[in-house]
Amino acid sequence: MFRSIIKQRPNWRESAAEYGFTFHTMHGEAYWDESAYYQFSLQQIERDIEAPTQELHQMCLRVVEKVVADQQLMQRFQIPEQHWNYIRNSWLAGDPSLYARMDLVYGGSGHAKLYENNADTPTSLYETGFWQWLWLQDQVNAGRLNRRADQYNSLQEKIINRFAQLKIEHPRDTLYFSCCKDTDEDRGTVQYLEDCATAAGIECKFIYVEDIGLSADDCFTDLDNLKISWMFKLYPWEFMLREEYSEVLEHAAVSWIEPPWKAILSNKALLPMLWKMFPGHPNLLPSFFEDELENSQLVNYVKKPIFAREGANISIHLAGKEVYSSDGPYGDEGYIYQAYSPLPAFGDNFTLIGSWLVGDQPAGISVREDKNKVTQDLSRYMPHIIL
Q1: For residue 317, what are the domain limits?
Q2: 310 pLDDT exceeds 80?
Q3: Which of 196, 232, 279, 384 could form a disulfide with 257 if both were Cys (CB 3.0 to 4.6 A apart)?
């Protein structure tokens, strides 16, 4: 695995405008960066990333199975008590999921280690499934990359196929897609998923989260007062379970993508539970709940809020001293503590691997890098190849 400089495509911004990639630059800073790429060997992909991703996913599902059957663990995961049955029944019913992204620390050798599981509302999907693949084709055709260059990327194909599977259970239903207003990246992610669903033969509509209504008989409705029975929402379960409308979720007769049980899988409390159930696993980092820290023997660790997103409210502690911290709105829900395993540095860049799953199948990777040691929402997205 190494980082290589490459000449950028001369008209990539015009191409981005043509394809609707509106968030390649955010807040005046480059988000998509094709001035370099990361190269992997096939063995690194198959042995060190793909196979562990598959195994970690099955381990995570084992955690969900354990948590939904234990009230004390539901408390540990900060699931509101009034929703325990809702979460549990969703799991027992086998409510289907669409996709997830595991964040891994990996520098080209040794075991990839799980940082966290973004199993509810992961973004950077469009860049992974479509845009970096287009970059690869263009650079190969321009002679800047070897014609044998490939990419670990079956994400778009698998998502379309997954939507086709989900359509079998909803043959005549309209699938609504939703995200919050004023979020270009979220809107781009949702639009991409809507395009994939349309390619699978599903009738789709879009509505902003803020515009969803509630009928007198406790059904969610669109702007035409039509009832919503099937919805993909890029809005996290930990928020939904605490909204004013949360009391009607269980009776609103909506099939959600992602399903309610993803509130456990996307929760940072997953990390200490994995360590309890699979201690010493080579793809896990020692992780503990707050009341376990004293006996954990951790010297260097990362403190993470149970509900944190995009690098918010994270602090790094080395030999008892805090050496890094980030701001954010999280933390009231409690923290977990994970052994410190620094991201690999390529020059001045700290690099994170995102390993994608669709349903239960690994589907590709994304690569993010930053000058800081913690990957955040504006960390640069870099393309990759296999050679």
Answers
A1: 286-339
A2: no
A3: 232
Residues 123 and 262 in one domain: yes
92 and 183 both lie in a single domain: yes
8 and 38 both lie in a single domain: yes
Q: Give the mean model confidence (pLDDT) for residues 136-161.
A: 98
User: What is the rounded CA–CA span in Å between residue 243 and residue 267?
Assistant: 18
Within a domain: residue 381? yes
Number of Cβ atoms within 10 Å of the Cβ of 7: 10
151 plus 192 within the same structural domain: yes
- Judge whether 89 and 317 are in contact, CB under 8 Å: no
Instruction: Please indicate, yes or no, whether the overall pTM of this predicted structure exceeds 0.70.
Output: yes
- Which value, in Å, is the radius of gyration of the alpha carbons in the chain? 21
Calpha distance 381→124 (Å, rounded): 8
Query: What tokens appear for 202 in the block?
Result: 């599903």
Distance (Å) of CA 158 to CA 192, 193, 197, 329: 13, 12, 11, 35
Number of domains in the chain: 2
Question: Percent of the chain beyond pLDDT 90?
Answer: 90
**Cβ atoms of residues 229 and 255 within 8 Å:** yes
- 99 part of a folded domain: yes
**Residue 219 CA: distances (Å) to CA of 98, 216, 250, 263:** 23, 7, 10, 21
CA 5 to mean position of chain CA atoms: 27
Q: Identify whether residues 117 and 239 lie together within a single domain.
A: yes
pLDDT bucket at 119, cuts 50 / 70 / 90? very high
